[in-house]
């Protein structure tokens, strides 16, 4: 085993890349849960976004359009969930699980003709000047645009929830939907918008897997990333910056175990592959989770 | 005659199977405190929701200052100058006071300015409030202040108050009334809903009485007696509970230094409570909400376990026993929150009866439910306590608050307890149902059972209890004979006015 083969700078840089898909999916789910909805279909929306993004990119030749298509695909699938749970008042947990199963099968169907094709490479966007700083530059400022977009979305969601009127209303709806209704806010409308935002983010996260991380289409390529995103939302106590931390923690363990595998560590590969998930479980057990939004996962109907 | 501030003409609203409002018409004058009276289910809530834009009437119209007023949503009503303080507070626990207030306003200014204005208004009206406190940590009285200040910040022309005093101490009520009078002096009108007729007599200038959705009369509460108003509401003469003389029985319950940690973040710890209760007596326990009432009920019912010798029942240590073991011994309890604590909302009344009565009424056999017997027991409760429902197969959720309350109290009384603990037995219950529940508690005591009645309604406690004690921050005062206690003495026992002061502006 040769640990010196692991380059700490490359390791940290690839950590940010590895964390981006779950980061995107988790920030979307965070907004959904702050609005009081539990959507367990993140995995399904991610893989739908992955296949939509891949198909659009191959056919249109533009990864940018591909990501847009992924967001739209994810949001549309989320809208199905939204209509079922918010308008038809189906159970959120059961509907979310069904959405995951449906998404996995639906994505496999859509992607049949695309197995084995390689996605075009997305060029990096080094930030001028900043990327030339030694050590910090290559770690933080030499990535593809989606990595920056992910961090920008975190910052945007944080500011939205904290400073904007719409963010206040969204939190109010998630905290006590009966009171929000009594004050005249449109609970269902707010929740549908949040659900669609969550779907779009999950779609982006999925497309990042199929277009950047892998980068090709295979069935089941999300491999549980959507579930990790759900866990990270709880880990983060529904707060955006802690969510960034959680995603990096998971991404870090993922990258580290890959590097250890490559370095030929004398541990069976299966244990190393388990490590990120074990770490997530451990951290979730050790952390005292914060207070969940008051109306989380409850159906809202104006007459009750 | 001047134009009324708000004129209601022929408002009608029907829900499937029930007409909530039928042809309701009356006027509210500017600068008037107008009482809206009626039993539970008389249609008061529907009517105020119509005025606030939450419910669209099927027929009829409203005029505000002579102009047609048909708010499509609460936003429109707020813009027109109508504000409302809800019975079940419309507050968000995890947010701070300023955020809660911003949510109830149209075009709120930035948070910092709200904080400044909250301080100003709360000073002006003697309602101290810290804009940065988290609402979940406030007492019920303080939470109501948040609601009131939220309304005051919008300079309302009409303020609707739904049961505002049910959670306040006498001193807080006095201060609330002073605030409302100042508001009236400033030209605003107030539509005031309450079951407490003495309060209405002290405060209001006019009253409209609803029964089964119709206006059945109006009166001047300053010259009408509480009894006459109650009879107008009920439509028949009112039964006043009477206390029969009871012999003093032997000691049934002893608490020795009962202490318990707060069960959750917003709870209150119980501190060193000593108490003896005898058979045949009713002990009234008063106190402002959030001073340990829920915790005391939980420690008695067995939801909170304590050291075994902290609770002695009939000479046995039972502090460590679970609720069903205590029920078998004859210690029964009915907690405050009907929906979700005393009763499971989506289960039928039969199932709900089973949940607490299985042990004492023999409703199960070898692990199987004896449905016939359970149904019979539920039907007996329904008949004995005049619970208005089509049958025991209906869900608890489908009952009105008063009817469900009669059911959950009746369910315990019918099990023939040796000691019954009730918390807020008549909260949000109309006058006739409240009288029936109080009479049932008195009858139970007359038969030799002990009753501990925890309530925030002091009139109620004075009416039924033999001795009175007060809970304050988890401590229980020494009980005193209820007869002859004055309102001032009680107020002092409750721990003073809780940092409220009388308004001091010259409005």
Automatic annotation (TrEMBL), chain A:
- Where would one find coiled-coil regions in this protein? none
Annotated InterPro entries: ABC_transp_permease (IPR001851)
Single GO cellular component term: plasma membrane
What is the protein's name according to its record? Sugar ABC transporter, permease protein
Superkingdom, taxonomy of origin: Bacteria
Molecular function, one GO term: transmembrane transporter activity
Protein keywords: Cell membrane, Membrane, Transmembrane, Transmembrane helix
Q: Does the keyword Transmembrane helix apply?
A: yes
Its subcellular locations are: Cell membrane
Transmembrane ranges, per UniProt, are: 6-25, 37-58, 64-84, 96-115, 135-161, 192-211, 217-236, 243-260, 266-287
Automatic annotation (TrEMBL), chain B:
* Membrane topology (UniProt): Peripheral membrane protein
Q: Which residues form a coiled coil?
A: none
Where located?
A: Cell membrane
| Entry's Gene Ontology cellular component terms | plasma membrane
Alphabetized InterPro entries for the sequence: AAA+_ATPase, ABC_carbohydrate_import_ATPase, ABC_transporter-like_ATP-bd, ABC_transporter-like_CS, P-loop_NTPase
Q: Which UniProt keywords apply?
A: ATP-binding, Cell membrane, Membrane, Nucleotide-binding, Repeat, Sugar transport, Translocase, Transport
| Any one GO molecular function term | ATP hydrolysis activity
Q: Which top-level group of life is the source organism from?
A: Bacteria
Pfam families cross-referenced by the UniProt entry: ABC_tran
ABC transporter domain: which residues? 6-237, 253-498
What this protein is called in its record is Sugar ABC transporter, ATP-binding protein
**Which organism does this record belong to?**
Yoonia vestfoldensis SKA53
The opening ranks of the lineage are:
Bacteria, Pseudomonadati, Pseudomonadota, Alphaproteobacteria, Rhodobacterales
